[in-house]
Amino acid sequence: MPSRADLDPGGLKRVLPHVLLVDVLGPHQYRYRLIGTECIVAHGINATGQTLHEALKDYRYRAHVIGLYDQCVKERRPLYSESLFFQTEAAIDRHVKVLFLPLSDDGATVNMIFVMQVIDFIDEKAWNNHFTSTKPHKEIVHAML
To answer: Which residue from 38, 39, 63, 72 has the fewest beta carbons nearer than 10 Å?
Structure first.
């Protein structure tokens, strides 16, 4: 596994707005170290420095997200996930694509996760309610890479 030091921000300029760096604090415990500007805009909050438990208020969605981080840490390999969020049972309001890449200072233990996230909003109402309302979601792709 690469380490955080192996990442060259200069080579990632184009994708940095979509990047999150997440510290692994312990089992099921993660903290946002860095959040790219596009992620902040999309989520409507800057959760830098917060744990996932602090930032993600809806316990069902939080459990889903922590499960993705847990699997990336346990498997020590990249994970790709796509989810659809629904305004109603039939109407999709956003499509979220996320890549989780484990990082390790010692080559064995995952101590950080490099995350790339792209959110496609279907309409402005969905954008405005992204983190302020709870929406049902369905993971449509879940793949270890």
So the answer is: 63
Residue with tokens 């959110």: 119
Cβ proximity of 49 and 109 under 8 Å: no
Q: Is the pTM of this model over 0.90?
A: no
Q: List the helix and strand counts (H, then E) for the chain.
A: 4, 6
* Amino acid at site 70: D
- Full strand arrangement of the beta sheet holding 137-144: 29-35, 19-26, 112-121, 92-103, 79-86, 137-144
Residue identified by tokens 């390790």 is 104
- CATH topology for the 16-144 domain: Beta-Lactamase (3.30.450)
One-letter amino acid at 32 equals Y
Q: Which contacts (CB < 8 Å, 24+ apart) does range 125-130 have?
A: 125/87, 125/93, 126/85, 126/87, 126/93, 126/94, 127/42, 128/44, 129/93, 130/42, 130/43, 130/44, 130/94
The predicted-structure confidence for 37-87, as pLDDT tens digits, reads as follows: 998 888 778 999 999 999 988 888 899 999 999 999 999 999 999 988 777
